[in-house]
Amino acid sequence: MRHGGAGAESDKHMLRREFLAVRNRLTADDLRVTAAALADRALELPELAHARTVAAYVSVGAEPGTRALLDALHARGVRVLLPTLLPDNDLDWGAYTGEDSLARVRHGGRMELLEPAGERLGPDAVTEADVVLLPGLAVDARGMRLGRGGGSYDRVLARLDGAGARPALVVLLYDTEVVAHVPAEAHDRPVRAVVTPSGIRRFA
Length: 204
Hints:
Layout: H1 5-23, H2 28-42, H3 46-49, E1 53-55, H4 67-75, E2 79-85, E3 91-96, E4 102-106, E5 112-116, E6 131-134, E7 138-139, E8 145-146, H5 152-163, E9 168-172, E10 193-196, E11 199-202
Parallel strand pairs: 1-2, 1-6, 6-9, 9-10
Antiparallel strand pairs: 2-3, 4-5, 7-8, 10-11
Helix pairs in contact: 2-4
């Protein structure tokens, strides 16, 4: 059953705090080991094996690490798009061509992000992706994703819908973040699969 309105948002807020608290207890060794395992598992996805363009992101802090995966995709000849945060929380996109193509950017008082330093391709560039790798904090048995709450990826998903684009949506998480249920609202969309350091789970 879908929840809606203020109740779902309040439940989401509480869950976000709980999942972030667990992530913040991870050590540098935990992050290194899980990032390598996550890349290995993700590269087993048939959708990534056949993708020509992948929209991804650079992990920050205690997020499941994506750098090894970005490098592996780039080495395969995949066109990798990475987001740049716009002032209104929407996302523009640029190409990843290796570590030297990233720049550290601080947005106001928020955390520092690694973003593509080259040409901006426009918010609609994501509609060209065969696979969109989504950040998140949890996913449930229906494939419903709990995001960070900033709304940036809600806009991305709405843009994909508006363009009639149907890329494979995949969320990258830790094993403990695959749960029975997360609150969902009318605008939330299920993902096709979740990749964790121990494997892949698909959703109908």
